[in-house]
């Protein structure tokens, strides 16, 4: 078990979230996602990130239930999808997620994307879910600062997290700075850039220097920047690799070199193009 996986960050409402988790985007429901989650939990992961859109909440819930680990020791995130947004629609979607997960509550519920004309009513539903103690924290995903500004005009609860595409070639400096200034935690999805540039000379050089893999260099960069990260893998050896980042430290100079890889290389959808 990797002890570093119990390292947590305190959110703005006092809830603690493990800084490294397992993402399960595009992991097939049933045996595939079940085995991936069971494997991660056996290694010591205590943070699992799913979404209604992933269509694997049922397998995630079963794996957690069968693990024998007390529910309150595992941090579970799910999200409301775009065509489920709106006030009543979100409340209904959340109940469907709870049913599929076979849980009484989730630890974090997110607005998956800032759907124009919808996300403020969706957020109002999340506030109700939070007040009803069915989610220990609520947040957003893929929000630019202007979305957050707009949301907060009417919100009574500040988002605890903004989960965004974030990796060295899309360093999201503006979003990170905004969230830091407003005490909103940043969480990275696709943290290793879908493995599309792990052969970059700078990452290769640093991997050799620290005797780590390029993916470990990136995840450590996230960690030292205070960013929560949820790398996806169904492979136990890769899950081990992603967790094994607590026994070294990148120098300030090397952190800057990684940051300098930023070139706006967005691999997913731009939230302004929805």
Topology:
Blueprint: E1 8-10, E2 16-18, E3 22-23, H1 31-43, E4 47-49, H2 57-66, E5 75-80, H3 87-101, E6 106-111, H4 119-131, E7 135-141, H5 145-152, E8 161-165, H6 173-181, E9 185-189, H7 201-210, H8 214-224, E10 228-229, H9 236-243, H10 252-259
Strand runs, count:
10
Overall average residue pLDDT = 97
Which superfamily, in CATH terms, is the homologous superfamily?
NADP-dependent oxidoreductase domain
Fraction of residues in helices? 25-40%
The portion of residues forming beta strands comes to 15-25%
Main structural class: alpha/beta
Largest sheet: 8 strands, parallel
Radius of gyration: 18 Å
Low-confidence stretches: none
- Briefly note the CATH topology name: TIM Barrel
Tally of DSSP helical segments: 10
Q: Main sheet: which strands, in order across? A: 3-4-5-6-7-8-9-10
- What is the name of the CATH architecture? Alpha-Beta Barrel
Given this structure, which CATH class is correct? Alpha Beta
Overall geometry comes to globular
**Number of domains in the coordinates?**
1
Written as H for each helix and E for each strand, in order along the chain, the element string is EEEHEHEHEHEHEHEHHEHH
Span of the ends, CA to CA: 41 Å
Enzyme class: oxidoreductase
Organism: Amphibacillus xylanus (strain ATCC 51415 / DSM 6626 / JCM 7361 / LMG 17667 / NBRC 15112 / Ep01)
EC number: 1.1.1.283
Domain NADP-dependent oxidoreductase: 20-262
């Amino acid at each position: 078990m990797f002890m570093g996986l119990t390292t947590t960050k305190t959110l703005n409402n006092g809830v603690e979230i493990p800084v490294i988790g397992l993402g399960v985007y595009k992991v097939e429901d049933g045996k595939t996602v079940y085995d991936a989650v069971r494997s991660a939990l056996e290694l010591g992961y205590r943070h699992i990130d799913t979404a209604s859109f992933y269509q694997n909440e049922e397998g995630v819930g079963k794996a957690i239930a069968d693990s024998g680990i007390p529910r309150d020791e595992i941090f579970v995130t799910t999200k409301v999808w775009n065509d489920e947004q709106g006030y009543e629609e979100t409340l209904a979607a959340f109940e469907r997620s709870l049913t599929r997960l076979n849980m009484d509550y989730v630890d974090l519920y997110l607005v998956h994307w800032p759907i124009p004309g919808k996300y403020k009513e969706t957020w109002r539903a999340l506030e109700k879910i939070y007040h009803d103690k069915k989610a220990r924290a609520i947040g957003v995903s893929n929000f630019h600062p202007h979305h957050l500004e707009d949301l907060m005009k009417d919100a009574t609860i500040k988002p605890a997290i903004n989960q965004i595409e974030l990796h060295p070639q899309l360093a999201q400096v503006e979003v990170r700075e905004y969230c830091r200034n407003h005490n909103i935690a940043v969480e990275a999805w696709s943290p290793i850039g879908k493995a599309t540039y792990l052969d970059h000379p700078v990452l290769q050089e640093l991997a050799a220097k620290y005797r780590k893999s390029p993916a470990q260099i990136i995840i450590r960069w996230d960690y030292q920047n205070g960013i929560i990260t949820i790398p996806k893998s169904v492979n136990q050896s890769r899950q081990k690799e992603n967790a094994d980042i607590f026994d070294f430290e990148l120098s300030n100079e090397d952190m800057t070199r990684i940051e300098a890889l930023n070139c706006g290389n967005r691999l997913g959808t731009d939230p302004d193009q929805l």
